[in-house]
Structures are given as structure tokens and as C-alpha cells.
Amino acid sequence: MNENTANNGSIESRKDFKDTPKGQYQYYAEELGASTKMLQKWHKMADKIVKKYLGDNTSTQKDMGTFKLNLFHSNITTLQSMMYGNTPKIAVDRQYTDQNDDAGRVAATTIQRLLSLDIQQNGEEVDSVLQSALSDRLLAGLGCARVRYDMKTAMVDGEEQVMDESAPIDYFHWGDVMWSWARNWSEVRWIAFRSYMTKDEVKARFGEQAGNNVPLKQQKMATDEETSNQDAETDSAWKKAEVWEIWDKEKRKVVWLCFGYDKVLETKDDPLQLENFYPVPPFLLANPTTSLYLPTPDYKLAEDLYNEIDKLQERISIITEAVKVVGVYDSSSEEIKKMMNNGTDNQLIPVSNWAVFGEKQGLKGQVDWLPIADVVNALDKLRDMRSEAIGLLQQITGMSDIMRGELGSAYEGVGQSEMKAKFGSMRVQALQEQFAKFASDLFQIKAEIISKHFSPQTIAQKSNMQHSVDVDLLPQAIEIIKNYKQAQLRVKIRPESIAMADYAQLKSERTEYINALAVFMQSASPIMEQDPSSKPFLLQLLQWGLAGFKGANEIEGVLDKAIEAAQKAQDEDQGGKTDPAMAAAQLAIQQEQLKQQGEKGKIAAKAEADAQLREQDFMRDMQLAQQQHAMKLEEIEADMQRSLAETQAKLEADLLMEKVETQSNLVQTNATIEGEIRKDATTAELDIITEAAKTGNKIQEIREAAAHKIKETTQAAKKATTKESKDD
To answer: For strand 142-147 and strand 169-172, is the pairing parallel, antiparallel, or unpaired?
Structure first.
């Protein structure tokens, strides 16, 4: 959308734009451009939230081997399961449950049949629409669905006749909806819905010229353009035109346009004539404020905690990888490497230089293990911090309010636990009521379309009321339905069974009514036997009590027939004459008697019901106590078995360590003894060599002294001989 973002905020008056296709295109382009800027930040945030829900991790995180703890997906799945149990069953009742408003009752039954028939025929579609809207509300923060009117005609005998009429419900993705700037729903001036149409569909819908000139582009998964460019592999293979359908409440017109085609495609006056104009109920909006009508996703309110939990989980996963038996050793000692890699039980690894090995204090001096205890302590601390962060997250998101069903103490009954669960899930109940109102408003629009556009023949045919006991009142009922303002005053629509139903409460209400009805019949029978003329009045009292219960419309029709028959029989017995004063007096007496007997019966029924509830409560408490006792025994037995297994494993490990240490000590002792022997032998050999060297030195000295002595003697002899020669 390039054109719709230009000159934003320049509108001063609608009169500045000509009432031509091009002029109206310029006006709505300005409006949609302003809305695009207003919603851009939310769209970008919503795309990221959807990726977070799907656990879309980056490639860097995958390469690191870390993983995210996707609590967001778990929380959303839990909430969605609680808030949407099944396809809703529509309940349509009289506005004020007046027992004499038979035409209003039949009108309510007729509308209920029409709405329920459509749900039965298109159950999967309605179910998919509501589930998708709820999913968008929990993720992106906005759920949207709308109702449209379809009519099929055919030429019969030269005249165009209506063959079928329907009011289907369509889902719209949160990124395909835009609206004007407003502070609340009542200030919204226009709503636009985006549809993707092929070139052929544009030609068939808006003409040949539009089909040949509208720009086509690939449909993308992401709403934000920057995000969609990063995920180009998810783009659709088809090129389609983005056609915007704008419902202008100020002009009460519907306009179709496509950006890049410089004039509106089509303009229609208000096609549905709805009271609130829009074919869509107020959006299923998350955390709205009166500052700006814009959703704030639930994830945004707890984003910091989700990120903190992810950060702690990453650290835990990284540190978990470090919890392993690993260490370092002296690279010159190949024997240690062999002992760790190839060593088996009862096998000794020879050491080539035991003296050096012993001087280095054996294994203790040459192997150093990673301090696993410190790593495990850090890991335990991180897990405690993660648990604390998860607890805070549950409080912020309201997940802590969802009770687990356990008893708070041994003296707490099932009834008290149910009351705690009811009060503890108020935030979830608020979401359920918001979703139920959205569905109710959706079907209210559907009923209004039926009222204003369906023909009486279609209403009678699709409701199948021709075979009911109230067929005589059907024309009056259809007249009420076709007069929508009158129908609003006499008929109300609400969805049933959207969330998980409280069947125990429903059963209790019906049981209480059946008990009260039994007491009423026991009290009324003697009165009717004594005075048959009181039968119509008693039946009217019964009808008055029945009118306040859900699903009583059909039975009220039967009671109407019974009251009419009883009144007719009474008139025939009295010849068509009645004494008003006597009848009033009898009625007053009978009502007082019935009131007293009813009070007694009510007290008795209440006492009986209380006794049954106490008995049921006691039996449930006994069953829970037995289950808890059995679970406790199983836990004790499991703890004992685990303790025995741990003790046995510890003993075996201690024995193995002692065995290894003994073998190591023996080897070390033997090596020490052998070393001492070798040392003594070496010392003796050195002493012998030293003594031999000393002896040799002494012999050499004696020899040298003797030689010197001989030399001196020889020299002296020579000198004497020489002297004697000279003397001669």
C-alpha cells in the first residue's frame, strides 16, 4: 500500500473530494492510509506473537543446541479449550418470560429453529469461524467475523422467484480488517474488509476494464510488509488483487476499491438496512482503553516474563550440556589415557616409569576432574529462578486462577472446592463472557437479517413450524419477526454451551424444579378433586413457574392447550355462566392453601435436597480420602523402592571403589618394594665400583712411588759411576 499512505492527515472536509469515482477513491485512500499507519505497530507486534506461539526459533539458537520453553503456546491452548467447548446452541426466549405472550413464545421458537438449522447445516463452518476468531483474540488481540445475506433466484414462468435465502457467517483475519481512528466502538466511522480476488473474479464482479487494470500481487502470510519480506518462501503461488470493501457509516454506503486502480470499483447504498449499519459485531478486542480503539495483545503485558523464562531456559540447557564426567590429565602419562578408554574390570594397566609416576602422587597428581558439584549447584539455582518466574507469569496471565481440583485440607468438602474453583476462575470467566457476547451479537445480526430480508414463506419453510402444536400462532409469530422493532421488545437471543457447561449446576436446577413440581402436583390434586373449577387456575400457576426455565417453550404450548381445554370444560359444566365473585373468592382460598402447602413442600423438598447434597458430599469426601490414601501409599512404596535402589547402588559403588583402591594400593606397594630393592642394589654396585676405584688408585700410587724410587736409585747409581770414572 504505497498510495494509501501518502499525504496522511490532510483531510479537512469531505466536500474537498468530488463525488466521482476518482474523487471518492482519493478520499478513501487517505482514510485507509491513516488507518494503516495507526495499525502498523500492532500488525508488526502481532506477527511476532504468532511466530512466538508457533515456537519459531532463529537459526543461531538451533545451532547452539538450546531450546525455548514455549509456555505461551501451552497457556493459549489451555484458555482456548476452556473458553470454547463446542459449537454453540442458540437459545431464543421471550424478553420478559410473560406466560401469556404466546405469540412471542412461538416467534422465539421460530427464530431459534432458523438459527439452529443453519448451525446444523454449516456446523463445521460456524465452528471454524468462532474458533478462528477466538484464536485471533488470544494471539493477535482481535477477533472478527461478519454476516452477509445471500439470495438465489430463478426464472419461473417468466417471473423471477426467490429459490433460497441464507445469512452465512464469514471469518476475517485480523490483518484484513481496518477501521477509522476512534476511542471506542461507537465512534468508529467506517470499517474496511480486505478480500483477495483473482483476475477472473475481478472481471466477473466489477467488469472487464477493472479486471484488466487492477494490480495483482502475491498473498503473504505475514501482515507487516517488513516481516513478510523475510518470509518470502511462504508467499502464495497465485497473484491476486487486494480489494477493500469499505462500510461507511456516515454515508451509509458500501464502497469497493483496489489500490493502484485510480477509481472506486463500485458503490452501493446500505444493502442490509441494519440498525447499527455494520454487518459485524464489536470486535473481540483484547485490553481496550478509552485512549484509542486499538487492541493490546495479552502477550505484550507479560512479554518481559516470557523473555526472562526463555533466557533462564537457555542458560539451563547450556549448563546441562556441561554436566558430564570430564577432566584433564598429564599428556606424558599414556597409562592414564588407556585406563579411561580401554580399562575394564579386574585389569591392571602397567606403568613404564613407576618411580616418576609415584613422585607425581599417582592418579591424584596427574588427573583433575571438572567440578560437577559447582555446576549442579548453579543449575539448581537457575531452576529455582525459572520456577519463580513461571509463578509470576501464571499470576500475571491468570493461569494460576485455574484450579487443579485438589482439596485444600483434609476437612474441606467437595462443595467448598467447587466454590473456590468458581471464584478462582473469574478472569477466565470474564473472557468466556466476552466471547459469549461476541457470538450472541453475531447471531443477533443474523436474526436481524432474517427479520428484514427473509420472506415469510422462507421463514415458515425453514423453521418447520407447520408441524408444531403452535401452528395456529405461526402467522402472528412471523408478523412479530418481520417487525424487527417489535421483535426486539419481545424476543432475546443468547448462545448456550459455548464454554464448558456447568452440568452439575444445570442438573441441580432441574432436580429442584422436579421436586417442587412433585410437591405442587401432590398439593393441587386434592384441590382439583374437591373443586374441578380450580384446574385452569392451577395450570396457569404451573405455566407461570415453568416460564422462567430454559427450553420450556414447547411445554408451554402444551400447557396452553390444557388450560384452554380445562376452561372450556368448566364453561360447559356451568352452562357458560360463572359467578365472578365466587370464582375470585375460591381462587383466593385456593391460592392461600396452595401457598401454605407449597411452603411446606418447599421446606420438605429443600430439607431432602440438602440431605442428598450432604450425603453426596460425604460420599465424594470418602472417595477422595480413599484415593488420596491409596496415592499416599503408592508414593510411600515408590519412595521406599527408590531408597532401596539408591542404597543398593551406593553400596555397589562403594564396594567397587574400595576394590579399585585396594588393587591400586597393592600395585603401588609392590612397585615401591621393587623400587627400594633396585635402589639398594644400585647403591651396592656404586659402592663396589667406588672401592675398586679407590684400590686401583692406591695401587697406581704405589707403582708410581716404586718407579720413582727405582728411578732415583738408578740416577744415584749413574752419578756414582760417573764420579768414580772421573776420579780414575
So the answer is: antiparallel
Q: Which domain holds residue 29?
A: 1-56+169-272
Partners of 266 in beta bridges:
256
Q: Which residues pair with 94 in a beta bridge?
A: 491
Asked if residues 621 and 414 have their Cβ atoms less than 8 Å apart, the reply is: yes
Distance of CA 719 to the CA centre of its chain: 132
Phi-psi group of 575: left, alpha or beta (phi > 0 → left; psi -120 to 50 → alpha; rest → beta): left
CA 484 to chain centre: 39
Banded model confidence at residue 30, pLDDT cuts 50, 70, 90: very high
For β-strands 327-329 and 367-369, DSSP reports them as antiparallel
SS3 content of the chain, % helix, strand, coil (to 5): 65, 10, 25
CA atoms of 418 and 691, how far apart (whole Å): 105
Specify whether 204 is located in the same domain as 235.
Answer: yes
Same domain membership, residue 174 and residue 242: yes
Are residues 387 and 407 located together in one domain of the fold?
A: yes
Which residues have a Cβ under 8 Å from the Cβ of 288 and sit 6 or more positions away? 184, 294, 295, 296
Number of domains in the chain: 3
Indicate the residue among 456, 474, 499 that finishes a domain. Answer: 499
319 and 338 within one domain: no
pLDDT at 291 (0 to 100) = 93
Report pLDDT digits (tens) over 262-296: 999 999 999 999 999 999 999 999 999 999 999 99
CA distance linking residue 314 with residue 68, whole number of Å: 7
pLDDT greater than 90 at residue 519 = no
490-522: b (≥16 Cβ within 10 Å) or e = bbbbbbeebbeeeeeeeeeeeeeeebbeebbee
Q: Are residues 485 and 377 in the same domain?
A: yes
Domain ends where: 452, 469, 499?
A: 499
Tell whether 47 and 86 lie within a shared domain.
Answer: no
| CA-only gyration radius of the chain, Å | 48
Q: Exposed/middle/buried for 137, CB within 10 Å: 0-12, 13-18, 19+?
A: buried
* Residues contacting 82, CB < 8 A, separation 6+: 402, 428, 432, 499, 500
Please give the angle made by the CA atoms of 23, 25 and 31, to the nearest 5 degrees: 110
Please tell me the predicted confidence (pLDDT) of residue 454: 92
The set of residues, in sequence order, having a beta carbon less than 8 Å from that of 273 and lying 6+ positions away, is 452
Helical residues (DSSP H) of 54-101, grouped into ranges: 59-64, 71-83
CA distance 94 to 81: 31
* Three-state DSSP state, 2: coil
CB contact at 8 A, 392 and 413? no
Q: Say how far apart CA 192 and CA 107 lie, in whole Å.
A: 34
* Rounded distance between C-alpha atoms, residue 339 and residue 343, angstroms: 4
Is 158 part of a structural domain of the chain? Answer: no
The residues, any chain, with a CB within 8 Å of residue 78's CB and separated by 6 or more, are 399, 402
Would 533 be classed as within a structural domain? no
Rounded-to-integer distance, Cα 567 and Cα 144, Å: 53
Going by C-beta distance under 8 Å and a sequence separation of 6 or more, which residues neighbour residue 93? 108, 491, 492, 494, 550, 553
| pTM, 2 dp | 0.64
CB 202 within 8 A of CB 238: no
Answer yes or no: do 335 and 472 share one domain.
no
Residue 573: the pLDDT is 62
CB atoms within 10 A of CB 101: 19
Residue 98: inside a domain, yes or no?
Answer: yes
528, part of any domain:
no
Do residue 353 and residue 408 come from a single domain?
no
Is the pLDDT assigned to residue 424 strictly greater than 60?
Answer: no
